[in-house]
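User: quick one
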Amino acid sequence: MRLRRTDPHTLAGAYAVDALNAADRESFERHLVSCEACRAEAASLRDAAGRLAEATAAVPPARLRGLVLAEAARTRQQPPPVRVAERVRRSWHGVGWPAAPRMAVAIAGVGILVALALGTLLINDQHRLRVAEVQRAQIAAVLNAPDADIMTVPAQTRGSATVVMSHADHALVLTTARLPVLPPTECYQVWLMGTHRIRSAGRLPAPKQGMTAPMIVAGVVAGDRMGVTIEPAAGSPRPSSRPVLMLSLPSD
Amino acid sequence: MTAELPGERSPVTSGSELAGLLAKVARGDEAAFAGVYDRFGTLVYGLVRRVVRDPAQSEEVTQEVLLEVWRTASRFDPGEGSARSWLMTLAHRRAVDRVRSAQASVQREARAAVAETDYDVVAEEVETRLDAQRVRRCLETLTELQRESVTLAYYGGYTYREVAALLGVAVGTVKTRMRDGLIRLRDCLGTES
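Assistant: Done. Structure below.
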């Protein structure tokens, strides 16, 4: 269709008034990832659109107040995004995307991750030991890098991901905890989203007791974002759903 | 065109007040949540009612929106935009989701005529007449096609493709008119308030 060739910038208005269908919205949000100016414009247009509601204000039926307050009183609230750190970075722009916290590595935290990484890899089957050894060396290198950063980010759904990243090694180590269990027909797939392209970093390993074994992701470029989507079990060449988790990787 | 930068936001009535309330709501403060309802319930309900039309469904959606505010107040990030914008986005998305589910849209059309009548009565009770007037005045500064594109999408809950079909113009035209219209609206509201 001719539509596909149009400049994504022109969707900013339609996006701000929620006039995109799911597929258009997803592709526009993917565009936003790599376009700072577009994010600023989208936010300002959304702000303007929201003010249209001032012309439609209407007093709700009186009984609604009691219903809403009573329902709230018996509803558990979501916890804030886990602040591993003081320094907060903005992640995926849009309502509800949590901020990605970050800090310089706490030695103790890394120690736990190292233990976890080595423990998990050592119990692997014998025939996988060669691969495991290489991965273990890579993982250990990242975890012990002098410039390593550790970040934890909550998922949209449930659970969280913890990332240790080394800029010098252009690599990160990813573990997740308590993500919703997927049916066998689906998997979690990890993506690196750069300015110009999105590339797959592979599928998350199957969880054990709710946690996934540390996974090494190499070839990280400054300014990349890491996203996790739900894909068919065999994986996809490109993300086919909205990320359940997004993280801005530190660029310095 | 004004000199307003894309990142700047016009001062919004009660915007910072809402941010303060949300911070308390995030900590489980039920009185603050009641405050959100009392100050912003008319905005949420009015918008939902305008999009959804059906009174019973509008109440349900309003309830969903406010409960979402209660549940996710801790996720509001001032760095991502104003509290007001966050709230109205929640409300609008919920309302649009409701009307786009096939079953609901059938019901909406069937009941639209009935809903229209008492909606005006309800709107009469509203105190925020000045805000409403300012928005309407700013909408008047848009070209007709810009205004129709923006309002059919925002108040009508239509996708831009549906708006194009309704107006009998090209899809690309609607997209640019929506964007240009919102830019004009933003600039008008920004200079007026």
